[in-house]
Amino acid sequence: MISTGGTTTIGLYDFKRKVDTFGGVDYWEALQGGYLLNARVMLANGDIVKSTVPNNTVNPNVDMTYWVKTNDASQIKDKSGRDQQEKNDDVLQVEDYIAISATVRDAFIAALTVLKAGNGGTLNLGRGKSYNIFTSTTGASTNILNFDRLKNVTINFNGSEIVTDSTVQSVPRIFHLKNPKNITFNDVRVRDLAEQAISGTSPPNHWGAQFLRITVDDTVEEADKGGIVINNIEAKHLDAVFLCDGYNGTVWSTKRFKNIAINGRVNILNCYYGAVFQNNGDNFTATLNGENVRRLYYPSGVDGHDAVGTIKGNGLAANAGSTSCILLKSDDVPLTNITARFKYIGKLSHSNTVALVIQPTTVGIDS
Q1: Mean pLDDT, to the nearest integer, of 152-179?
Q2: H or E element that contains 357
Q3: CA-CA distance, 181 to 283, in Å (whole number)?
């Protein structure tokens, strides 16, 4: 304190301390004793910074040691204790990886590998882009994006599309996920350039790609897998939009994969299959709208399905040769608690609109 003529005034240091205490902000200047922990000061460029230690004498205009910008993402924490920067690190942009990758496929693999290592996060596609992720001339089935035990990942398409080119009878699987958990796809657009469903042959010359194939086995407990959500999808010229396969090469899996949903705007156009379940994939809810789809809904050996939608045809040869638009199948694993409500529109070329098949052991899917 400074006393003059019997009048006591506040010294500069004490005044600055009081300003700091009540949250005031002033330009940084050297103070005897330094700044308090969490004191705010303004830099010469107008940025506001906060002291991270008590008695801070470092000049943040030249050295940010023991100072941090108050709008720094690391300073914004939620109730779990994670800061905003940690959350930001969980959000990846595929365009960043395309810039440093040899191919589009390599970019997607690199980004998803990072998310898997971090136990999840979000992958954003660019806005209004077209990603040609695979071209096949070999005729062999290929898993384009192949991940085991991928967890807690959201993929936002942001108005973009994924494109494949199946020029022969290969069936590339765009996403092949083994025992995944909590995977969400938002606003999906996907198409195959082969345009198999309007080839006018049966079977078609080109099968097209599969968008998402889930493979289930007994190496992972039920509690550690399950949970697939597709919110809004437009799929064209694919072999299948979604498949859940419970066969591991020798036996059917006894561990169930559960909780699958296809929601919102769903348009499946000129595809071979819509949603297929091969003795696994319980608790499924969906809106399935198909046009010129040979078999829109094909559940086998599953429990607890509720599927609704429309089946539309224009009478093209692409719909010939199939036994049913909807095939309900029970073989090694019982088929139970299935609700299917569909409206038929236009000209269909099937011998049946709905078929129930009970037969001996059948391994694999038609494709």
Answers
A1: 88
A2: strand 352-358
A3: 14
pTM: 0.73
What pLDDT score was predicted for residue 74?
57
Distances (CA, A) of 95 to 101, 173, 288: 10, 22, 31
| Range 24-28, long-range pairs (CB < 8 A, 24+ positions) | 28/59, 28/60, 28/61
Total residues belonging to the chain: 367
Asked if residue 103 lies in contact with residue 143, where contact means CB atoms within 8 angstroms, the answer is no
Quickly tell me which residue has 């036996």 as its tokens: 251
* Distance separating the N- and C-terminal Cα atoms of the chain: 87
| Tens-place pLDDT, residues 50-62 | 998 889 999 999 9
Strand partners, 42: 27, 48
Query: What token pair was written down for 137?
Result: 């001339």
Contact criterion met (CB below 8 Å) for 164 and 174: yes
Q: Which two tokens stand for residue 224?
A: 């550690």
Q: What is the pLDDT of residues 199-221, one digit of tens each?
A: 444 444 456 889 999 999 999 99
Pair of tokens at residue 282: 């319980």
User: E strands along 34-96, which residues?
Assistant: 40-42, 48-51, 67-69, 91-93
Residue 32, pLDDT above cutoff 90: no
In the prediction, which pLDDT does 329 show?
A: 86
Q: Say how far apart CA 348 and CA 128 lie, in whole Å.
A: 34
Answer yes or no: are the C-beta atoms of 268 and 235 closer than 8 Å: yes
- Cis link prior to 203 (omega < 30° from 0)? yes
Question: CA 196, 202, 206 angle in degrees (round to 5)?
Answer: 30
CA-based radius of gyration for the chain: 29
C-alpha torsion 43→47→53→54, nearest 10: 50
